[in-house]
């Protein structure tokens, strides 16, 4: 039995997730927030691919990062001042 190990998975990096969610929440328009997210996901995808990580694992990690950032963004938008 073998598994895929991602070195330093970004989805576990709370600071990274919170930073990009806050940037999206503060964007002047939905289009700018979406552009920021897509740019960051592209950067992360390129970094994982450069490391030679399996394409299926890369796709799963990018999806997890996107979901985490979007969830954190909604927290910023719906609970101004932050939530515990």
Describe this structure in words.
The chain is mainly alpha-helical and 84 residues long. The chain has one domain (13-78). The chain is 69% helix and 0% strand. The protein contains three helices and no strands. The chain has helices spanning 14-26, 30-50, 55-78. The mean pLDDT is 89.
Describe the secondary-structure layout:
Layout: H1 14-26, H2 30-50, H3 55-78
Helix pairs in contact: 1-2, 1-3, 2-3
Descriptive keywords:
84 residues, mainly alpha
Q: Compute the number of structural domains.
A: 1
- Helix and strand content put the structural class at mainly alpha
Measured distance between first and last alpha carbons: 38 Å
Largest sheet: none
Question: Low-confidence parts lasting 5 or more residues at pLDDT below 50?
Answer: none
Please give the number of β-strands: 0
The number of helical segments is 3
- Report helical residue fraction: 55-70%
Shape: elongated
Average pLDDT confidence is 89
Order of helices and strands: HHH
| Radius of gyration, CA atoms, in whole angstroms | 14 Å
Q: Per DSSP, what share of the residues sits in E-state strands of 2 or more residues?
A: under 5%
Quick description:
This protein has helices at residues 14-26, 30-50, 55-78. It has 84 residues and is mainly α.
């Amino acid at each position: 039995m073998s598994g895929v190990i991602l070195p330093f998975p970004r989805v576990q990096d709370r600071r990274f997730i919170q930073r990009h969610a806050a940037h999206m929440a503060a964007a002047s328009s939905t289009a700018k927030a979406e552009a920021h997210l897509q740019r960051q996901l592209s950067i992360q995808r390129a970094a994982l691919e450069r490391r030679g990580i399996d394409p299926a694992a890369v796709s799963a990690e990018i999806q997890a990062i996107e979901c985490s950032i979007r969830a954190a963004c909604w927290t910023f938008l719906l609970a101004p001042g932050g939530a515990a």
